[in-house]
Amino acid sequence: MPRFPEAEDTLSMVSNFLHSHPETVLGKHVVGGKEVVRFLAPRSVEAWIESGGRRYRVSKVRENLYEGEIDKHAEGRYQICFRDASGYVTRRRDPFTFEPLLSDYEIYLFKKGELIKAYETFGSHLLKYPDVNGVRFVVWAPNAQAVSVVGNFNHWNVGENPMINVKDSGIWEIFIPGIGNDEVYKYAIRGPDGKILEKTDPYAFKAELRPRTASVVSDTGFIWEDDDWLRSRALSNPLDNPVSVYEVHLGSWLRDNNGGFLNYKDLAHRLADHISDLGFTHVELLPIMEHPLDASWGYQVVNYFAPTSRYGAPDDFRYFVNYLHKQGIGVILDWVPAHFPQDEYGLGRYDGTHLYEHEDPRLGRHPDWGTYIFNYGRGEVVSFLLSNAHYWVEQYHADGIRIDAVSSMLYLDYSRRHGEWIPNRFGGHENLEAIEFLKKLNDSVHIRHPGVLMIAEESTSWSNVTGTTSSGGLGFDMKWNMGWMHDVLDFFMVDPIFRKYKLGNLTFTLWYAYSEKFILPLSHDEVVHGKGSLYGKMPGDEWQKLANLRLLYSFMFLFPGKKLLFMGSEIPQRSEWNFDAQLEWSWNRNITNQTKKLLDDLNLLYRKSGLARFDFVPDAFRWIDFKDSDNTVISFIRGKPDTEELICVFNFTPVQRYGYRVGVPSGGKFKEIFNSDSSYYGGSNKGNFGIVEALHQRKHDFEYSVSLTLPPLSCVVLGSENNEYKETE
To answer: Is 277 part of the annotated catalytic residue set?
Structure first.
């Protein structure tokens, strides 16, 4: 029996890890005018209290629960002490002498979905008091009966370090003195059904290396060196600037000699050199947030705030971004707020109930991927997701966020049959909560981080994805043009003999080219699941395949819209992407160098010609001819009459055309500034000897025209005779 009476059930509940307010029992309390200390020590065979050089005896009042009286005037910084069965003595400060720091305002903003920096409140954070250092833990588990922190520091004993349900908010907090950086931990959560779950920290900044799944206390001492980059980014308008993206899966881009993963730092140097050789402005990384499997694209994220430990520590990834910025390369991150996996240690049924996801599987379960869907109608979930996006921008200096699977977020009936979904309050199939979340996300990023790109992967005809929220749009800066990707690849896969019957499919892409602010993606989605590589999709023998690829890349770079190309397309990789091995770097170095030179020159043309300023300007595009199906040739003008205009001509057959006349907007001489058939790129080196002269001969509704030699399967670009293409501002 306790010497100082307390409700029997309260003591037992605390001792048995069943109480949400252990602070009412544990710590120092005045009982009957005496100073009484109670503490849990489940590993002890002997326990006592030390304070001011004195040792105070304690008695065991419940299983694992001790209490003892100390001198009222004794030093307040007492220590809990116990000896375990091995004879090892533990001395520690009492966690319950430290008050919770969670404020009413933080609770209010979190529940409202407006705690933009929730990662500064939740998770594990190093904390220094004048006399002791330790770690503060905060977690949201509103339906839990009890929560405790478990880790190496307490031998993973459930209930040894119970947390406080602060103001009955459902947010639990505890400060544990004497532990520090790199401490491994999880949360032990007793759900409403009495079962104990061990969960990772949703806000953990670091995760253990697989197959281990615990969270790791992580503080950063990284010193950034990209201030000039960030200042320039904030002052720029990315819509008017060149955006040419090299899409990368870090785990299968390059590996070490033993087939193992490279560190973020090694990857930074190798990738920066490679991207610089190709001329791309940005790299886009398939998800680097922690995920369970190596053989994975990364889209099933378990730890949203932790860069995967496969490639190193969090500061190693900071180094990666910092180094690329110093080399003039932006970093875009793929992000997955649409769904999350059902791994037992993750977000699913976090406190024993459907917390981050909907309870009803018609809302909360994704039929295609077997994953949970976030509940965007819950403020705490919105705070979690908003703060996660801001975290990657603020803590890792990301230059853009590409949101995966936006379509699955927008539609309640996405990939569902009749009866498998629940209409919204108006009877429609739009996910109103997800729509509001996306608008809120985009507006908040634009306000706090001007110059950072918000990009949508949205595959349906949902309108105004890149419109401002004030005009009813979703507020994205750009959207992947999935229609363009499919239409263009479908055309290029056709044998050139039959392309004249499909030319309308290609030219049709222009009719919707300005309906949104588009990125033109030749992405990872098109080189997996039996679809083959881009090289493999092209018809013909090896020469024709390579010529078709040069033509495809040229068409993408000259078509209005920003650019994206998946890794391996520059080799060009013959087999489809294998995410479990590195790229085929060594298959033919000569062809690789030629293709890399082509892409470098296309990127140079895109960056220096001013085309990027007109990517989203409809009147900066004019058809010359889109009807010549007999020859399967199209031509158009990029630019405006008061600026440099580029005349772009494409021959989609292996037949060389001589004396092919094309209308031009003015007389005089034109320079052949690009020819995809150049021998530098592996072509047959046919062309127009540098200069062509326009004659006063009407063609294609133009008063002047030029006579061209069109090499087989080629793109020819003409510009003004004297333009040297200075860098655009």
So the answer is: no
Domain pair 8-95 / 237-611, same fold: no
Question: What fold does the segment set 104-216 form as a domain?
Answer: Immunoglobulin-like (2.60.40)
Query: What's the pLDDT tens digit per position in 588-618?
Result: 999 999 999 999 999 999 999 989 999 999 9
Under CATH, what is the fold of the domain 617-720? Immunoglobulin-like (2.60.40)
- Write the pLDDT tens digit of every residue in 678-713: 999 999 999 998 899 999 999 999 999 999 999 999
Q: Which of 380, 457, 458, 601 is catalytic?
A: 457
**195, two tokens:** 């079962």
Instruction: For 355, list phi and psi in degrees, rounded to 5.
Output: -100, -55
Q: Is 404 in the active site? A: yes
Of 316, 334, 357, 404, the active-site residue reads 404
Q: How many CB atoms lie within 10 A of CB 437?
A: 21
CATH class for the region spanning 237-611? alpha beta
Taking the C-alpha atoms of residue 176 and residue 100, their distance in angstroms, rounded to an integer, is: 11
Quote the CA–CA distance of 392 and 610 in Å, as a whole number: 31
Class of domain 8-95: mainly beta
pLDDT band at 71 (very low <50, low <70, confident <90, very high): confident
pTM over 0.85: yes
Residue 75's pLDDT band (cuts 50, 70, 90): low
Sequence spans of domains, the chain: 8-95, 104-216, 237-611, 617-720
- Tell me if residue 354 falls in helix, strand or coil: coil
Q: Pick 9 or 16 by higher pLDDT.
A: 16
